[in-house]
Amino acid sequence: AVRNVLVTGCSSGIGLALAVRLARDELKRFRVIATMRNLEKSQELVKHAGPVLEKTLEIKEMDVTSEESIRRCVDSIPHHRVDVLVNNAGLGMIGPVESQSMASMQQLFDTNFFGLVRLIQEVFPGMKRRRQGHVVVMSSVLGLQGLLFNDIYSASKFAVEGFCESLALQALKFGVNISLIEPGPVITEFERKLYEEAANMDLSQVDKETLDIFQGFYMAYSKEVFTALGQSPEEVAEHTMKVITSEKPPFRYQTNSLYTPITTLKHADPSGNLPLNAFHQMIFQHDRLFKASLSLLKMLQWRKRRDMEHSRSP
Ligand code: NAD
Asked: Which residues does the chain have with pLDDT short of 50?
């Protein structure tokens, strides 16, 4: 049977790539309801969807911060039937916490965390009734591991992880699956928006030492990491497709295997000091180690490019 898949945040990035990938499935297994907050931003999706538009893919409006908007969208789906929910819409945020306004932090949680909660309230009861369904949530490796100057973003993804870990127990009882997708860096609008916001940030309350770490170190480091380790949204969509079509979907799925060793450090030491000290040393104590890690990143970047060229040649 054809499954109805509702995807949020489809005007760009991972959401767009995934909606198109699902709608273009050779086996035509999906009917995609690609949603976005602002329909005026649908040109990219329309362009990428091409011939499948209005066939296996339809575009609808949904703002995940509004219960009314969510309900209106779900009400327009025949029998309100959402077989697969892909909770993808999300915002990023970087910088010293003392420079963030309470309003912008709350907006981030309202989108990244309460957006998911609102959607679950709307579609989970139907899934339980039908004893069938799959909730796929775009989390992040930062939902497993904190990162310098990502305090609020990481907290929102930890919230998502804790929520899903709890809900998954109930879901299991009703034959509903939950899967957390945990990408590392992905080259999308997300990164551009982060730097744009960082450039316009009010840093007047921040002391010089912190400012030096943020502007003099973190920004360069972050850009390097995205270039060296960043995946394309299409790669993440391909991994997510695998999770959606899997017979027994995994509860957690990391799309970038280079991050797996870092995220397991935490489980090796219940006191939490091992990963904390490892990161602290890498960042603050060993300038040489930092430079070495940058050259390692550059090497990985070179290898990735080489592998991509290899896979392109027949
Ligand atoms: P993106 O900025 O291209 O896409 C995010 C989408 O969410 C945008 O289309 C945006 O308009 C939409 N959105 C924001 N607020 C919304 C709202 N209230 N209602 C509906 N839509 C809203 O970035 P992306 O990289 O494609 O991000 C998608 C998801 O992947 C996010 O949840 C993000 O946290 C997660 N993620 C991204 C990265 C990365 O490095 N890019 C890494 C790990 C996880």
From this structure: none
pLDDT score at 293: 67
Residue minimizing CA distance to atom 32 of ligand 1:
90
Measured in whole angstroms, the distance separating CA 62 from the mean position of its chain's CA atoms is: 18
pTM: 0.92
Contact 79, 123 (CB under 8 A): no
How would you classify the pairing of strands 133-138 and 3-7? unpaired
Contact between residue 137 and residue 178 where contact means Cβ atoms under 8 Å apart: yes
Q: Which two tokens stand for residue 50?
A: 């091409």
User: Which residues are within 8 A (CB) of 259 and not within 5 positions of it... i.e. 6 or more apart?
Assistant: 141, 182, 184, 229
Distance 249 CA to ligand 1 centre (A): 23
Residues in the chain: 314
- Token representation of residue 288: 């040489």
pLDDT at 314: 53
Verify whether residue 153 is a known catalytic residue. Answer: yes
- For residues 103 and 114, give the distance between their C-alpha atoms in angstroms, rounded to a whole number: 15
Asked if residues 270 and 202 have their Cβ atoms less than 8 Å apart, the reply is: no
Output the DSSP codes for 180-194: EEE---B-SHHHHHH
Sheet holding 57-61, edge to edge: 57-61, 30-36, 3-7, 84-87, 133-138, 176-182, 252-254
Q: Among residues 142, 156, 178, which one has the least CA distance to residue 112?
A: 156
8 A C-beta contact, residue 231 and residue 185: yes
Q: What is the dihedral of CA 69, 73, 79, 85, to 10 degrees?
A: -100
Tell me the pLDDT tens digit for each residue of 236-278: 999 999 999 999 999 999 999 888 888 888 888 889 898 888 8
Candidate from 112, 182, 186, 227 with most ligand 1 atoms within 8 A of CB, to mutate: 186
Q: Is the ipTM of this complex over 0.90?
A: yes
CB burial of residue 94 (10 Å; 0-12, 13-18, 19+): buried
